[in-house]
């Protein structure tokens, strides 16, 4: 009888054409999908591909998202984006998403990531795809070049760290708080580049976009991928995204007796979490930071500006205005989510509260934008608060959920959203 | 240390050196030369100007956390850094480093080494010999990764593979 397998093992076994794999084995996997963006993609791949003289392996399995240097702010950005656009035309890429949102959100919106797939992305937040029961991880440009010409990549079969969340989150507490809590507990490299699998009633109760936030920030925990086994919520999302394939969700689950290191959490006892400068692991309950005044509140990025995130912020800010002296910036994660938020009245609530709406791109999160003033104290729904990360060397960046960012904007200091929610 | 063995000067940095410290976001739109000029500018302002080919970096745990940008290890290669030695690395940085030809040595006792000391490294056998002769043991590396770094990175291997195919 076959040894029980984790979800991670099943996904890798399929990708390397085996019935089962053992933890620690190094195997060569066939890639089902390779995603890259304007920053890590064409501007770096194109010259290397030309020097190699090899053709692309399979353009139908490549997705290009232009999201980092748009809207183009200067000549260098224009040059980088132009290379991406020209290369897409030259290679006749069938899947190109230009200035419509951040790659990790755009990819699932268009049904590109599905249970059972083995995917790579030219970006560290690529584990986001794990929310769909796909093995997805980030790689650098040279390794992407290898995938682009061969369709293959090596993987070391990971151990699985199971994060089991029982109970149910309180109102105003989110997947972002769960992740900040776990990163605080295990550290930025606590995932040891193994697979993390999120499970339990509190995870099952999350929407697809909230699940994506868990998988997304597996990167900040140092895991290679962050998996969530697919279920009816996954299938509903995929159907709405136009996916018509049959999915064998019963197969894409960890076997009950598969070997894993399990950690238990009580979702009901979790308070909103805030990570202080300059590390996402520098996390405590929000009430530890009540004295911190903020001048900038930022809702953005693949981590923290999806439709559910915008809704969360709006639920706090409805019929209210941000405190004097606070600049609230909202950079929706995709055009699709921004327009859905507009139809629901979410965007007008945010605008009426004083929000400045920015482009649907990586913006200040990648530090490419220059939106964050030097010397300011920032509360942000993004994933990283390394010194200088958001583009301002002297800024003090605190991380929190969209609820916490909105509540802090309202009061002008870091605030527990549960204090201001109706 | 016996004569004739190549030694490397140690630059010490702390724990949790992230990819923004190695390749700051503000310079990412420029080429690797410009990025390398700003490598570790906050932690060691004199590093980029004074590092010499063959020098090594010895760091605390979790070196290379953060982004997938391979300009982070590439900046170190550009500056001639021979290897980085730390008790633990980010897994993504680890892949990227070997892909661009940078050797990483995982060594639990790395932090015993001192700024400016000269050490010898033997990546194949996972051994570091300190100035005083003491030996530190490193975690073994898969041989294909060492071969890749030896070849100058994945690009050179791909070049070999594809030029062979063309013949």
Keywords:
heterodimer; A: 422 residues; alpha/beta; Aconitase, domain 3; 2 domains; globular; B: 167 residues; Aconitase, domain 4; 7-stranded mixed beta sheet; 31% helix
Write the layout of secondary structure elements.
The complex is a heterodimer of chains A (422) and B (167).
Chain A: H1 7-15, E1 26-30, E2 33-37, H2 42-52, E3 62-66, H3 75-90, E4 96-98, H4 103-109, E5 118-121, E6 135-138, H5 141-150, E7 152-156, E8 160-166, H6 175-186, E9 195-199, H7 201-204, H8 208-216, E10 225-227, H9 232-240, E11 261-266, E12 273-275, E13 283-285, E14 296-300, H10 301-304, H11 307-317, E15 327-331, H12 335-344, H13 346-352, E16 356-357, E17 377-380, E18 396-399, H14 402-411
Parallel strand pairs in A: 2-3, 2-5, 3-4, 5-6, 8-9, 8-11, 9-10, 14-15, 14-17, 15-16, 17-18
Antiparallel strand pairs in A: 1-7, 12-13
Helix pairs in contact in A: 2-5, 6-8, 11-13, 11-14
Chain B: E1 8-12, H1 19-22, H2 32-37, H3 47-50, E2 56-58, H4 71-78, E3 83-86, H5 91-99, E4 103-106, E5 118-122, E6 127-129, E7 135-137, H6 143-150, H7 154-166
Parallel strand pairs in B: 1-2, 2-3, 3-4
Antiparallel strand pairs in B: 1-5, 5-6, 6-7
Structural commentary:
With 422 residues, chain A is of the alpha/beta class. Chain A folds into two domains: 7-265, Aconitase, domain 3 (2-Layer Sandwich); 272-419, Aconitase, domain 3, CATH 3.30.499.10. Chain A contains 14 helices and 18 strands. A five-stranded parallel β-sheet of chain A has the order 4-3-2-5-6, with helices on both faces. In chain A, strand 8 (160-166), helix 6 (175-186) and strand 9 form a beta-alpha-beta unit. With 167 residues, chain B is an alpha/beta fold. Chain B has one domain (8-166): Alpha-Beta Barrel (Aconitase, domain 4), CATH 3.20.19. In chain B, 31% of the residues lie in helices and 16% in strands. Chain B contains seven helices and seven strands, in the order βαααβαβαββββαα. Chain B has helices at 19-22, 32-37, 47-50, 71-78, 91-99, 143-150, 154-166; strands spanning 8-12, 56-58, 83-86, 103-106, 118-122, 127-129, 135-137. Chain B has a seven-stranded mixed β-sheet with strand order 4-3-2-1-5-6-7. The longest helix of chain B is centred in the C-terminal third of the chain and has 13 residues, at 154-166. Classes of the chains: A alpha/beta (422), B alpha/beta (167). Chain A binds chain B through residues 26, 39-40, 48, 51-54, 69, 74, 76-77, 80, 121-124, 126, 137-143, 145-146, 149, 154, 187-189, 192-193, 219, 222, 224, 279, 366-368, 384, 386-389, 391, 393, and chain B through 16, 18, 20-21, 24-26, 28-30, 42, 61-62, 65-70, 88, 90-92, 94-96, 99-100, 142, 144, 153-155, 158-159, 162, 166.
